[in-house]
Write a structure and sequence with these properties.
- The protein contains 21 helices and ten strands.
- It is mainly alpha-helical and about 525 residues long.
- Its main location: membrane.
- Keywords: Cell outer membrane, Membrane, Signal.
- It comes from Niastella populi.
């Protein structure tokens, strides 16, 4: 019997109703039913709150780095599962590809089953005042994950009724053209925009502007500049969002969670058992000489040499994104069993590539570490609470800075440059925060470079390279130094790597996925 991980029938178990009428009265794991639950806004919102955190972990942890930044040339890694993304030698058996696939189809499956259950509840007399916004949340998540699916794999399956598929036993689902996958994502986001509220009293909850911002990003990917401009402008003119003055703070402390710049963030929390609910980027990015008895650190991902060379002189984002020689955090006071180390760090953490390794020094392949989403050595050592691999900082997936740069690029449209005052104002707001001088004219290359440094290590640059088209992407990628501080390395980029292969295990389950795509619409 085939297993069914790609379409996440598990969502049907978590929801109170299954796909057919005979299942509507079957109790869930907590013995509730549609008849006696989802009668209050709190009960309904508790259902959709599950979409904000746990299901993202398989992508957010490592696959996001490998695909969005290692493959893009922003990060260096010597990890066995990540080197293929550095060298463009990955295969359909890659664990990173499988992890990302499972996450996106799991979320797609959960949202489909949640919507079905909520529609059924509404038909039984449930209150649309709080059910409809919850359905809109589901549309946002489903639209967002299919946006990722379309960008990562190109042609891919679309599944809107995973429970029915599971019950039918027919797993021969085709893959559809990328244009149809992206059209489906856009339709979902439109439904989200129509049903989400203007504001929400709970920090971190989606609003109408979250959907507008994500749609603007999708329209930009589609090169529909008019609609990208329109929606980005609506977010900007709403005055509901702004840039956070402290760029570094957004990525180094959970006190900045759900800040005024965040349109959509993966929500994290530390509990007595934080696995899945917490952020696990701290150990993968933190320097190994910052490890304590509270905080694990093993620097699986570090900045690439090419990324370090991308920053302009004086760019304040560099210190907020990268740890290099002389980078210091006085409030962090890590200690271990080495007396020389403790003496060196007595006045706070210092990033030093000269000091002897073990005595406080660190000398990794690019002589740098990622600062984003590293919250430190733990509460007992001057940082915030860390439980081994786990921290409570949210991961921002869509920021207001993105909306500003989307707007500037959309105004430029198909042109090579622009001096449009509104476009320059949006573009220069991002540069001003970074401590850089304003530009009086911007080109597409200016925007691409600005996006790279603004969103470095946030899993986004690969998609920016990809949407330039193969010829431009090849030019940019082959010019990147993907090596170490001592040994430069360059790659040859071929068109087959513009999109990732569908996981081999999924094709074994569904041979239709190995065939040519078909139309969904």
């Amino acid at each position: 019997m085939k297993r069914f991980n790609i379409y996440a029938f598990a969502g049907a178990v978590l929801v109170l109703a299954a796909c057919k009428k005979t299942f509507t009265e079957r109790p869930s794991l907590d013995a509730t039913t549609l008849s006696n639950y989802y009668n209050t806004a709190e009960e309904v919102r508790s259902l959709t709150s599950t979409l904000y955190g746990l299901p993202w972990s398989g992508y957010e942890n490592r696959a996001m780095d490998a695909i969005g930044d290692v493959m893009a040339g922003n990060e260096y890694s010597s990890g066995n599962d990540d080197v293929p993304y550095l060298a463009f030698s990955f295969a359909s058996t890659s664990v990173r590809i499988a992890d990302a696939w499972k996450v996106f189809y799991k979320i797609g499956g959960w949202t489909s089953e949640y919507m079905k259950a909520l529609e059924q509840k509404k038909g039984m007399g449930g209150n649309p005042a709080f059910i409809d916004p919850a359905i809109a949340e589901c549309h946002f998540f489903r639209g967002t994950v299919y946006f990722y699916i379309g960008r990562i794999w190109g042609d891919a399956p679309i599944v809107t009724d995973p429970g029915k598929t599971a019950l039918s036993g027919n797993f021969n689902i085709p893959k559809y053209y990328q244009k149809d996958v992206l059209r489906f994502a856009l339709e979902e986001l439109k439904l989200a925009e129509a049903g989400l509220p203007e504001t929400d009293p709970q920090p971190g909850r989606l609003t109408k502007y979250s959907a507008k911002g994500m749609m603007a990003k999708l329209y930009l990917y589609l090169k529909d500049y008019e609609n990208a401009k329109k929606l980005a402008e609506e977010v900007i003119s709403s005055n509901k969002y702004d840039l956070v003055t402290n760029y570094a703070g957004m990525f180094s402390s959970s006190t900045f969670n759900n800040n005024k710049e965040s349109l959509f963030s993966i929500q994290h929390q530390l509990t007595s058992n934080p696995w899945g609910s917490a952020n696990q980027k701290n150990p993968d990015r933190g320097p190994s000489n910052l490890q304590t008895e509270e905080a694990s650190m093993w620097q699986l991902y570090i900045p690439s040499i090419d990324m370090l060379n991308a920053y302009e002189f004086g760019d304040l984002r560099r210190k907020g994104s990268v740890m290099e020689q002389g980078w210091a955090k006085p409030e962090w006071k890590p200690k271990n069993a080495n007396a020389a180390y403790n003496t060196f760090m007595a006045n706070g953490y210092i990033y030093d590539t000269i000091q002897k390794d073990g005595d406080g020094g660190i000398k990794n392949p690019t002589r740098s570490n990622i600062a984003k989403y590293v919250v430190g050595p733990g509460k007992a050592f001057g940082g915030e609470l860390v439980l081994g691999m786990n921290t409570g900082i949210n991961t921002m997936m869509l920021r207001f800075a993105d909306v500003l740069l989307i707007y500037a690029e959309a105004v430029m449209g198909t042109g090579a440059s622009t001096t449009d005052a509104a476009a320059l104002e949006a573009f220069n707001r991002v540069r001003t925060r970074a401590g850089l001088s304003n530009k009086t004219m911007i080109t597409k290359d200016d925007i691409l470079k600005e996006r790279r440094v603004e969103f470095a290590f946030e899993g986004d640059y690969w998609f920016d390279l990809q949407r330039q088209g193969f010829a431009k992407a090849k030019q940019l990628i082959e010019a990147q130094n993907r090596g170490t501080a001592e040994v430069p390395s360059y790659v040859t980029f071929t068109e087959k790597y513009m999109y990732l292969p569908i996981p081999a295990g999924e094709i074994l389950q569904d041979p239709e996925l190995a065939k040519e795509p078909v139309s969904y619409y």
